[in-house]
């Protein structure tokens, strides 16, 4: 089984503009990862200006002041890293309670917004398990093989059937994909000679794979038998020629 976690250092997984508000940026982050919040325009603080990052417009994170060091407020000490040159903030080890709106404002003679993010923290998906069994051959077709595959997660499953005829396989029935009870996506499909089960959401994925040839010996055996017959004929023919000479 293979596990894929979208574990880049700064987990900005999905970034897009919300319809109806060009100033709010939607961000999806995997729980336990970091997020970088940038000011969306160049800001030059005047003598009486401060730039303040807030959470849900009630809790202050960081204050930048001209000529002074940034102030990280108590609740975010050890969790926030600041970048003075562009007034950005990196929040570390995000948890579900960190979901919400983060905004930056220049506070002075005239207040003005310079950034706003709607951050959603999601759990990574659970591991997935792929079970494959041979369902036998199709009637009247000795070179065919039917494979039954079931893809399971902690709260959901899908099943599908694959039919192989002389090394050519296709998905023949059952489900191909579904949305699980937790809102993630579960998908089962074939890639070349491999059955793949994929479990994903917007911040992570896991997958499990099986080789079809491990469950369809009659298909590989038919090729082997044909090769053996051809080899035997070739040897016999060569032997006859040698005897004649």
From TrEMBL:
Annotated signal sequence range: 1-23
Membrane spanning residue stretches: none
Pfam families, sorted: V-set
InterPro entries with a match to the protein in the record: CD2/SLAM_rcpt, Ig-like_dom_sf, Ig-like_fold, Ig_V-set
Lineage: superkingdom: Eukaryota
Immunoglobulin V-set domain span: 26-119
Gene3D superfamilies: Immunoglobulins (2.60.40.10)
Protein name: Uncharacterized protein LOC103374740 isoform X1
Species this protein is from: Stegastes partitus
Gene name tied to this protein: LOC103374740
């Amino acid at each position: 089984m293979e596990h894929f976690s979208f574990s880049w250092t700064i987990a900005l997984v999905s970034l897009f503009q919300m319809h109806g508000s060009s100033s709010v940026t939607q961000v999806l982050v995997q729980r336990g990862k970091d997020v970088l919040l940038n000011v969306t325009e160049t800001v030059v603080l005047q003598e009486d200006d401060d730039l303040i990052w807030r959470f849900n417009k009630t809790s202050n994170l960081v204050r930048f002041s001209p000529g002074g060091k940034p102030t990280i407020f108590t609740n975010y000490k050890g969790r926030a890293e600041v970048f003075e040159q562009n007034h950005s903030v990196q929040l570390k080890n995000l948890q579900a309670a960190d979901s919400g709106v983060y905004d930056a404002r220049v506070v002075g003679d005239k207040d003005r917004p310079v950034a706003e993010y709607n951050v959603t923290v999601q759990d990574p998906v659970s591991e997935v398990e792929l079970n494959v069994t041979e369902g036998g051959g199709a009637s009247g077709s000795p070179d065919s093989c039917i494979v039954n595959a079931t893809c399971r997660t902690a709260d959901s499953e899908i099943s599908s059937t694959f039919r192989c005829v002389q090394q050519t396989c296709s998905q023949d029935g059952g489900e191909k994909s579904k949305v699980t009870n937790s809102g993630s996506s579960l998908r089962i499909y074939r890639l070349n000679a491999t059955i793949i089960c994929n479990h994903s959401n917007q911040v992570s994925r896991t997958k499990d794979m099986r080789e079809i040839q491990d469950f369809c010996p009659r298909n590989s055996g038919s090729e082997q038998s044909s090769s053996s017959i051809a080899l035997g004929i070739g040897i016999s023919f060569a032997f006859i020629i040698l005897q004649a000479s």
